[in-house]
Amino acid sequence: MKQVRFKRHNPRMHWVGDGFPVRSVFSYTDIAAEISPFLMMDYASPTRFPPTEERKGVGEHPHRGFETVTIVYEGEVEHRDSAGGGGTIGQDEVQWMTAASGLVHEEFHGRDYAKTGGLFEMIQLWVNLPARLKMSAPAYQGITRETIPAVDLPENSGKVRVIAGEFQGIRGPASTHTPIDLWDIRIDKTTRFSSRVPEGHTAALFVLNGSVRFQDGHQATDAELVVLDPSGTELEFETDGPAKLLFLGGEPLHEPIVGYGPFVMNTPEEIQQAFLDYRSGKMGRFQN
């Protein structure tokens, strides 16, 4: 049975651009070793935006050495990057951008959503790439809700949407460079959740809303992250009523992490080169 190692909660919110009011749940500067291959999580808790004709979001900025994964729960996100990737995703959809050798991109509220306004809720993860792939070609995956399979839980207690990896023999649509499990778990009532996960893999559960309780007595509620011990293969917890959860699992990379702002590499020299390449335009530019 997997045991709880520790919990994380950050009550402080900050703005990314003018469209994303987020709290940083973790980053590569604090629990990188314990959460590998994940580098960062920003959570934009439910916020209501009024209708507007303005483009709210964050403009052109670079990345190198990792992937960004944006999960939209409410609202709409529009993306484009200098490698030619881009698209708009809405409720229950995912953007999986592989920055790898480097690109610039921008992220804004979707145009249709901006016109009507409404609730906005999302998570953005940064997923590390192994050293051998950090300078590979960028890529983009727009994962629509129709392509994400859902597995019904026993006794009509909810469902698990498999974004990446595998749950009960069902595989998610995301293409990953290392073994990763990413499950969108929706619980409808008080229930006990149980699943097998790979021995030695990182395992963490983020509670968007609701309340969960583990066998060792630890509890977690809204906007709390529970990091579990990598040993053991049984993931089990109980919920006190409905809950919305995200499970993060993956094979740790066990490689040096050197990051500065939007670049995450393995050595300080690689970070210096990333800044030089960005300033010289080698990561691309937008024409307009």
If you had to describe this structure to a student in words, what would you say it looks like?
The strands form 6 sheets. The chain has a 7-stranded antiparallel beta sheet with strand order 1-22-19-24-17-14-13, with no helix packed on it. The protein has a 7-stranded antiparallel beta sheet with strand order 2-3-4-11-6-9-12. A 4-stranded antiparallel beta sheet has the order 5-10-7-8. A hairpin with a 4-residue loop joins strand 20 (212-214) and strand 21 (219-220). The protein has 3 helices and 26 strands. It is 8% helix and 51% strand. It is mainly beta and 288 residues long. The chain has helices at 32-35, 111-116, 268-279, and strands at 4-8, 14-16, 20-26, 38-49, 57-63, 66-74, 77-81, 86-89, 93-98, 103-109, 118-128, 139-143, 150-152, 158-164, 166-167, 170-171, 180-187, 191-196, 202-209, 212-214, 219-220, 224-228, 234-239, 243-250, 258-260, 263-265. The termini are far apart.
